[in-house]
Design brief:
The chain is of the alpha/beta class. It contains 12 helices and 12 strands. The strands form 3 sheets. The chain has a 7-stranded parallel beta sheet with strand order 3-2-1-4-5-6-10, sandwiched between helices. A 3-stranded mixed beta sheet has the order 7-9-11. α6 crosses α10 (288-301) and α8 packs across α10 (288-301). The termini are far apart. The model has no long low-confidence stretch (mean pLDDT 98). The protein binds nicotinamide-adenine-dinucleotide (NAD) and 2'deoxy-thymidine-5'-diphospho-alpha-D-glucose.
Length: 328
């Protein structure tokens, strides 16, 4: 199968592309190369690369020529950035998804929208199913929810073979170090403070990016058009415990922990029930302890990947976000 993977130069998109190429698929990647998109993420993977935005109909038409299905990872993905500067989130999630849907519909293509557990909001106890109400709380999750609703409207109104796969918090190699795990790992390696928002007792449902990628491939192949499938990881963990595990894995001590001002509107807990996709035959393979240790090793061994980030514009983002400089 020849696939168009939008946002394939990012963290999860590149993991998915690597898996699909290893499985024998041909892949075209369409990516705008925002700060989070990097050609380095795919330097070892055979693919055709198109530099362009999903909100640009001409770029989309060119990239879609001859493909059999479209998988859309392209997004602005960091909640803190959506709070500070929501504009790009609206453009990419609303206009970009619309342009992709129109182009896929015109060509009769199967379409998979990559989405997130954040569309359901926060849950104190139990887990969200696909039937849970949508209660997004940040500009990131609200615009992702809008995109999901547009996809569902195309499946319903035009009978388009479109499916949605909603993942929980991903982690693994090549994740941009604005997100909790890579940020904490790199700061620990450098002996920088480890910023913990609020009381650190927010809970996330961690899934390795390889597992989320395999769920997406599974839903693309076996999912029923018009349906939504949740793919959550096997383990939940409060943030402060994630930080403590990273401290152990990097041989640091707890004096590096720094409690900082909480994120506005911070969701307390995410938890997904994945029964529906499990019934299609998918299972996550990586437990959090094992995946976290592997991820710490990857960052330790791949300084070539993060050195250009830590020495560039990311430093300005970090200073703005945390009110302090990173060490060299
Ligand atoms: P990422 O930020 O690492 O990568 C996003 C990619 O999209 C980058 O390559 C970027 O250049 C590209 N992009 C952004 N705007 C674009 C546009 N307008 N046109 C074309 N390309 C554009 O993101 P990620 O963490 O890999 O997330 C990928 C997808 O998975 C997103 O849709 C996200 O909402 C979803 N998701 C992420 C997580 C997570 O924990 N990271 C969990 C569940 C779902
Ligand atoms: O749940 C899926 C979502 O997971 C994805 O849809 C998003 O794209 C992805 O960014 C992620 O959102 P979170 O907000 O949960 O991830 P983040 O890594 O930003 O934060 C994880 C938790 O850690 C959250 O409770 C906030 C906290 N945190 C984060 C940072 C960056 C800290 O305590 N300190 C930090 O410095």
């Amino acid at each position: 199968m020849k696939l168009l993977v939008c946002g394939g130069a990012g963290f999860i998109g590149s993991t998915f592309v690597r898996q699909r190429v290893e499985a024998g698929d041909e892949v075209v990647v369409l990516d705008k190369l925002t700060y989070a998109g990097r050609r380095e993420n795919l330097q070892d993977v055979e693919h055709v690369f198109v530099h362009g935005a999903i909100e640009d109909p001409e770029a989309v038409a060119g990239a879609m020529a001859g493909v059999g299905a479209v998988v859309n990872f392209a997004a602005e993905t960091h909640v803190d950035r959506s709070i500070a500067e929501p504009d790009a989130f609206v453009r990419t999630h609303a206009v970009g998804t619309f342009v992709l849907l129109e182009a896929a519909r015109e060509r009769g293509l199967r379409y998979l929208q990559v989405s997130t557990d954040e569309v359901y909001g926060s849950i104190e106890e139990g887990s969200f199913t696909e039937e849970s109400p949508l209660r997004p709380s940040s500009p990131y999750s609200a615009t992702k929810t809008g995109a999901d609703l547009l996809v569902q409207s195309y499946a319903h109104t035009y009978d388009m073979p479109a499916v949605i796969c909603r993942g929980s918090n991903n982690y693994g190699p090549r994740q941009y170090p604005e997100k909790l795990i890579p940020l904490i790992v790199l700061n620990a390696i450098h002996g920088d403070p480890l910023p913990v928002y609020g009381d650190g007792m927010q809970v996330r449902n961690w899934i390795h990016a390889r597992d989320f990628s395999s769920a997406i491939a599974h839903v693309l192949q076996h999912g029923v058009p018009g349906e939504v499938y949740n793919a959550g990881g096997p383990d939940e963990c409060p943030n402060i415990d994630v930080v403590r595990r990273v401290i152990e894995l990097t041989g640091r001590d707890e004096s590096l922990i720094e409690y900082v001002t909480d994120r506005p509107g911070h969701d307390r807990r995410y938890s997904l029930s994945s029964d529906k996709v499990r019934a299609l035959g998918w299972e996550p393979q990586v437990r959090f302890d094992e995946g976290l240790a592997e991820t710490v090793d990857w960052f330790r061994d791949n300084a070539w990947w993060w050195e250009p980030i830590r020495s560039g514009a990311y430093r300005e983002y970090y200073a703005r976000q945390y009110g302090r400089e990173l060490s060299a």
